[in-house]
Amino acid sequence: MILILTSRDDATADFVAAKLKRSEYLRIDTDDLPSAVAIASTERRSSIRVGKTEFRPEQFSGVWYRRPKAIAFPARRGNAESRHAAAEYTAALEGFLSLIPEQRWINHPSRNILSGHKLEQVRRARETGFNVPKTLVTQDAAALRKFWKVCRGKVVLKPLSGGYLERDEPGRDTLIYTNRLREQDLARTAEIARCPTLFQERIAKEADIRITVVDGDLQAVELTATDSGEPRLDIRRNNMIDVVYHRTVLPRPIASSIHRILRSYGLRFAAIDMLRDFRGKYYFLEINPNGQWAWLDMTGATNTRDTLIRALKTR
Predict the structure, then answer these.
(1) Cα 160-165-168 angle, rounded to 5 deg
(2) How far apart are CA 218 and CA 259, in angstroms?
(3) Is residue 67 a contact partner of residue 290, using CB atoms and an 8 Å limit?
(4) pLDDT for 77
(5) How far is CA 7 from the centre of its chain?
(6) Given this model, what pLDDT does residue 35 score?
(7) One domain for residues 181 and 265
(8) Which parts of the chain sit beneath pLDDT 70?
C-alpha cells in the first residue's frame, strides 16, 4: 500500500490518486488530521486508524511526502491548549512515520530540507559539473553595484524562498517572478538593505528546460514562450497559457551531473530547472525536491505519474 502525505487542496495528489485503486493507497491530508486519524502505539506495536481500518508501518511499500500542512486544532479552550494539542498530535504522527524505513520515502523530509536551499544548491551544482550563472546574495548596495559591473548590467533578481505571498484578502495572493535588475534600481539602497536578495547573471537563453527524475528515470522538456519577440524571462508568466512544450534528450554529461547531484542529496525524486543558451550551453538554475510536474503530464510531454506509482509500489 502507498501512503500519501499531503493536504486536502493538493491537485497533484488528486491526479496521482485518480490512477490508483482505492485499495492501493491511504491518503492523509494533515489539515484534516484531528478528526480523521487516530494514532496508537506501545513499545511493541504502532498503528494509525482511519475510520474502522487500522494500518501499521510495515504495510506501506512507499511514502509519498507531497505537501502536508501543519496540524491545527480549533481554539476551543484557548490558543495555548490548541497549539499544545497540535504539537502532541504532530509528535505522535511523526513517531509512527519514523518506523517506516527512509528508503521507502519519496522523499524523506530530511532529504528535502537538505536539498532545499538555493545557496547550497548552486555551490553543489558547480561541484557536480554544472555551469551555474554568477550568483550573489546581498543586502549591500555597493556589492550589488560591483556585481552589476562584473555582469555588464545583465542581472536578474529572484526570491530565495518560494516567492509566494499569501495575503489576507481572498484572491489577492502574489507570486514573485524573476525580474531584470534595472540600473536605476541600484539607487534604492534602503530596499536593497531590507533583506537578503538573490541576484544572478542574466543568460541569454534559447529555451527553459524542466527535468523530472524518479529513481533515475529522467524526463526532460523544453519550454519556450516569447515576449516582444524574445524568450520570456520567467516562463511562468501569463499563467503559461502560451508555452510550447517539446520532449528533449539531454547531453550525456548533463544527465550524468543530474544523477550525481540527486545521489549526493539522497533524493529519489526532484524537479530541476535549467536553461540552454543560443550556443547550446546548459546552465543549472535550481533543484526542487518537491517540485510540480503534473501539468507536464497533462500536456503529454512527460509520464511522471506512472513512474512515480511504480516507484512507490516497490519496496
Answers:
(1) 155
(2) 9
(3) yes
(4) 58
(5) 15
(6) 73
(7) no
(8) 75-78, 170, 315
DSSP letter for each residue of 76-92: SS-HHHHHHHHHHHHHH
Residue with cell 526570491: 159
The burial class, CB within 10 Å (0-12 / 13-18 / 19+), for 33 is buried
Beta strand 217-224 with 244-248 is antiparallel
Task: Please report whether residue 110 resides in a domain.
Answer: no
Q: What is the pLDDT of residue 68?
A: 93
List of residues 6+ apart from 144 with CB closer than 8 A: 136, 138, 186, 192, 199
d(CA 206, CA 203): 9
- Please give the Cα distance from 261 to 72 (Å, whole number): 36
266 CB-near residues (< 8 Å, 6+ apart): 107, 108, 111, 114
For residue 107, whether the previous peptide bond is cis, meaning omega lies within 30 degrees of 0, is: yes
Residues 11, 15, 21, 24, CA torsion sign: negative
* Alpha carbons 165 and 101: distance in angstroms, whole number: 35
Give the pTM.
Answer: 0.91
pLDDT digits (tens, 9 = 90+) for 22-44: 999 999 999 888 777 899 999 99
What pLDDT is stored for residue 78 in this prediction?
Answer: 64
State which residues form the domain around 310.
115-129+204-315
Answer yes or no: do 153 and 52 share one domain.
Answer: no
213 with 272, same domain: the answer is yes
Identify the DSSP state of 50: E
pLDDT reported for residue 25: 97
